[in-house]
Design brief:
By secondary structure, the protein is mostly helical. Helix content is 54%, strand content 5%. It has 22 helices and five strands. Helix 14 packs parallel to helix 17 (418-436), helix 17 (418-436) packs across helix 18 (444-467) and helix 17 (418-436) crosses helix 19 (474-485).
């Protein structure tokens, strides 16, 4: 059997590509020949097609590893001709610059100049299906180098970028009537991750790409997707998107994928499913009152543990300091106050039940499932939770007026049991703390109305608030009450401080200790009275 017939024997498995590095070992079959070829390769002048594609920003940990499929006889130095090639010589010729336009604008490939290689001078046999007739030289930003010998048919079929470069090279062979070797040399400079680029090229020779992607993982697959988009490897792009759409993401992977979609433009049909997980395509009108629905659901929740958990969750989503986007979670002031009025109405009904003004026959069965005290406490918790959201959104001023006008609750407070009525003072306490700590600023009339309505009730319920604090800091409450009193005119301070003084003298620790604020009021009212009269006379 002659030499040509031996070269045409069918192979059990097609070797479609191979890679090499900047410092290869000597050939184990013929070290002397390999050494002489390496020496001769340094003096050769190679012509390359050079271009740049975007690729993964992740630095390669082991970009120089050799895949198991690589034929060990084909490990080359950069710029060398394979020792398997029949005729490695070539006739150097000047470089020709050209800049082919991108085939598809949706991948946003770079516009760096491509330089097709001139024909080699030596004659060679016609190409076979498995011929390695393309040498791809990858140069990393960190100085590393990787050389892949590939089949032009596979590259042209899978990548529009490489198809254009190979077509330009073939056209150059025809126009120059050269009968040299068909080796097309392409250089890719400034590759940030050689390993990712190599793995992307490997996928072109896979029969089922989607089965290999799980071995990469999501983070690596996003890197492969970026390289595939850069070299217009459409099959790789489709498989990566299909895999990514079907698996969960971490927050880091989601941000990486979101960043990729801001830099590359894909067609809508390809990315519809995966973009549906990244962005809400519907307008705000298609999700009417989403936040209001959440708030309503929480205030009507029956299970106390679930209600407390959801309150923490929704409040974190709605607060101004939240890291989440709130385009679809904005809660209007009107919606918030609608829910608040509903809770106040329920609270009035519960106190009517406690006072016996509503007959038991008029109550719904579900209202009788739990004790009255528990139901009242639930509604007060809801009101205080809504107040926290109002304070965060700086829309709580109107609630001060609303709470001061609850005349029906005030009347029932006088006759209700201390075990029940102190729940109302929990709302007043939160308002006093907000005003005393400068979180809530409201008009003088609103402050006067609030103190005139609920200050006496607070004095009565302070003992129960101490025993059933439910999150209240009593020292902060006492300080805030005194500071709120000091914001009133001195004449109104006089009436309220006198009321506190009488009650404190009888009840002692069952009453808030406002001694510090009382001393400030005394100093302002009497010790400086002579100075005030002098100013008025002038």
């Amino acid at each position: 059997m002659d030499h040509s017939s031996r070269r045409k024997l069918p192979q059990a498995r097609r070797r479609a590509w191979c890679c090499s590095f900047g410092e290869p070992p000597l050939s184990p079959e013929n070290p002397s020949i390999a050494h002489s070829k390496a020496h001769r390769g340094k003096s050769e002048t190679l012509s390359k097609a050079s271009f740049s594609v975007p690729n993964s920003p992740q630095s390669s940990k082991s970009g120089l590893s050799i895949v198991g499929r690589i034929d060990p006889r084909r490990i080359l130095s950069p710029g060398r001709v394979s020792p398997i090639d029949s005729d490695p010589t070539f006739d150097p010729s000047p470089l020709v610059d050209s800049a082919p336009q991108l085939r598809s604008p949706r991948f946003r490939a770079p516009t760096e100049k491509f330089r097709p290689a001139p024909p080699d001078s030596s004659s060679s046999a016609s190409s076979t299906k498995d011929a390695f007739d393309v040498r791809l030289n990858l140069r990393g930003k960190n100085g590393e180098c990787m050389v892949l010998e590939l089949n032009s048919g596979v590259l042209s079929t899978n990548s529009e970028i490489f198809a254009g470069l190979i077509a330009d090279h073939t056209q150059g062979l025809v126009s120059s009537a050269s009968h040299g070797t068909k080796m097309c040399r392409i250089e890719v400079p400034e590759v940030e991750n050689l390993g990712v680029f190599r793995e992307t090229i490997e996928l072109m020779f896979e029969d089922d790409i989607i089965k290999r992607l799980p071995k990469f993982g999501v983070y690596r697959c996003i890197d492969v997707l970026e390289v595939s988009a850069g070299i217009m490897f459409n099959k790789g792009v489709l498989c990566c998107l299909k895999y990514l759409e079907a698996v969960p993401w971490t927050e880091e992977e989601e941000e990486k994928l979101r960043s990729l979609f801001t830099r590359f433009k894909f067609d809508d049909a390809t990315t519809r499913d995966i973009l549906g997980r990244l962005y809400l395509h519907e307008t705000a009108d298609s999700q009417p009152n989403l936040a209001r629905q959440l708030v309503w659901s929480i205030t009507t929740c029956v299970d106390s543990n679930a209600r407390n958990e959801l309150k923490t969750l929704v409040k974190a989503l709605l607060c101004k300091s939240s890291v989440y986007e709130k385009n679809h979670l904005d809660l209007s002031k009107e919606d918030l106050y609608d829910v608040c009025h509903s809770c106040l109405g329920s609270l009035v009904t519960l106190f009517e039940e406690a006072s016996g003004t509503i007959p038991s026959q008029g109550l719904v069965k579900k209202d009788m499932d739990k004790p009255l005290i528990e139901r009242i406490s639930k509604e007060v918790d809801n009101i205080n939770w809504l107040l926290e959201i109002m304070l965060d959104g700086q829309v709580a001023e109107d609630f001060v007026d609303i709470w001061a006008d609850q005349q029906q609750l005030l009347k029932m407070h006088e006759n209700a049991s201390p075990m029940v009525r102190y729940e109302l003072s929990r709302v007043s306490a939160n308002l006093f703390v907000a005003m005393g700590t400068r979180k809530l600023q409201c008009r003088l009339e609103a402050r006067c109305g609030l103190l005139q309505a609920w200050f006496g009730a607070m004095l009565l319920d302070f003992g129960w608030l101490q025993r059933c604090r439910k999150g209240l800091d009593m020292k902060s409450l006492e300080e805030a009450m005194g500071q709120t009193l000091l914001t009133l005119p001195l004449k109104q301070q006089y009436m309220l401080f006198m009321e506190w003084f009488r009650y404190f003298s009888r009840q002692g620790t069952e009453c808030p200790n406002l001694s510090k604020a009382f001393q400030i009021w005394w100093r302002r009212s009497f010790l400086r009275g002579s100075e005030t009269r002098a100013v008025e006379s002038r």
